[in-house]
Design brief:
Blueprint (H helix, E strand, L loop, with lengths): L9 E5 L3 H11 L4 E3 L2 H5 L2 H8 L7 H16 L4 E5 L8 H12 L6 E5 L2 H12 L3 E7 L2 H10 L8 E5 L1 H5 L5 H15 L4 E4 L5 H9 L4 E4 L1 H9 L38 H15 L5
Parallel strand pairs: 1-2, 1-8, 2-3, 3-4, 4-5, 5-6, 6-7, 7-8
Helix pairs in contact: 1-4, 1-11, 5-6, 7-9
Erythose-4-phosphate (E4P) binds next to α8.
Length: about 290
């Protein structure tokens, strides 16, 4: 079927496997885009095979990632596709900038995922000024989202995404959906150009919340979208969706001022941990 008009949120698949893109596209009849990350690409069955054969190198893995992204693009040619830079403590501003430029040339309209760290935001500022689309990932706080808004002012609407990670906050007993709600509220008050992309989505409640609150984008794994579709939720008006009451710790809304991005507190332990995990999964593909 065509995407129902009442669903304002863009529906993305969170996966590093084009075979899953094909399954979901055929199941839903539409798919607005796809997000990938180093851990998801490392799980791709063909890449796993190359890893097991011991043939991947630090260089050749990027050729494989490029193929994955292009295969996704062939299935959803007008879809928005995000690919992520490699980043660890040692990655310099110059290296990340250069990597971002290379990824941005894989095909037109691609989104370069950058971490919300001092280096990542500094790189975003430059890439955005060069007309490159960015997806600011590993967002765990309203301050981080405020910094993304401030650093990328002047970007076109739709050129910058921020990805709040709901499930990973839930994992530590914090109600991650509040982060989405708070960022949406702040961006609305500020008339922000940044689009909110609900990420680390693990449950139907997470999906319902993003649809009901009209987050611009939501990305979720194949199994969750299949469950959502098979339960007939595609046919429900977002306003009719119900979200369960939570026993997790809620996050208060902060009345933040608009200021220079470097004045916000962008440090978050989960951002650091997330980067470490991405780097470990990536390096496991070619380290002996
Ligand atoms: C997408 O952009 C994110 O990388 C992804 O949703 C993270 O999900 P996870 O917390 O389930 O790994």
């Amino acid at each position: 079927m065509n995407k129902p008009e009442y669903i304002k949120t863009q529906i993305f698949l969170d996966s590093g496997d084009p075979a899953e893109t094909k399954i979901l596209f055929e199941k839903l009849g539409f798919l607005d885009g796809q997000t990938t990350n180093p851990s998801l690409v490392a799980k791709n069955p063909e890449i796993q095979k190359l890893k097991n054969d011991g043939v991947l190198t630090n260089e050749s893995i990027w050729v494989e990632y490029n193929k994955v992204a292009n295969d996704i693009k062939n299935i959803i040619p007008s879809g928005s596709i995000s690919v992520e830079v490699y980043s660890d403590d040692a990655t310099s501003f110059e290296t990340m900038c250069e990597q971002g430029r290379i990824l941005s040339k894989w095909f037109s309209g691609i989104y370069v995922k950058l971490p919300i760290t001092h280096t990542g935001i500094s790189v975003a500022k430059v890439l955005v000024s060069e007309g490159i689309n960015v997806n600011m990932t590993l967002c765990f706080s309203q301050d981080q989202a405020a910094a993304v808004h401030s650093a990328t002012k002047g970007a076109k609407k739709g050129q910058v995404y921020v990805s709040p990670f709901v499930g990973r906050l839930d994992d530590i007993g914090i109600y991650g959906l509040d982060l989405i709600g708070n960022i949406l509220k702040m961006y609305k008050e500020w008339g922000s150009h940044v689009s909110v992309l609900g990420a680390s989505i693990r449950s139907i409640d997470h999906v319902n919340y993003c649809l009901k609150n009209e987050a611009e984008i939501i990305t979720a794994p194949l199994a969750l979208w299949i469950k959502w579709e098979e339960e007939g939720r595609l046919l429900k008006l977002p306003s009719d969706l119900i979200i369960s009451v939570t026993d997790k710790k809620q996050i208060d809304y902060l009345e933040l001022e608009q200021k220079n991005w470097e004045e916000y507190n962008i440090k978050h332990d989960l951002t650091d941990k997330g980067l470490e995990k991405f780097a470990t999964d990536w390096k496991s593909l070619f380290s002996k």
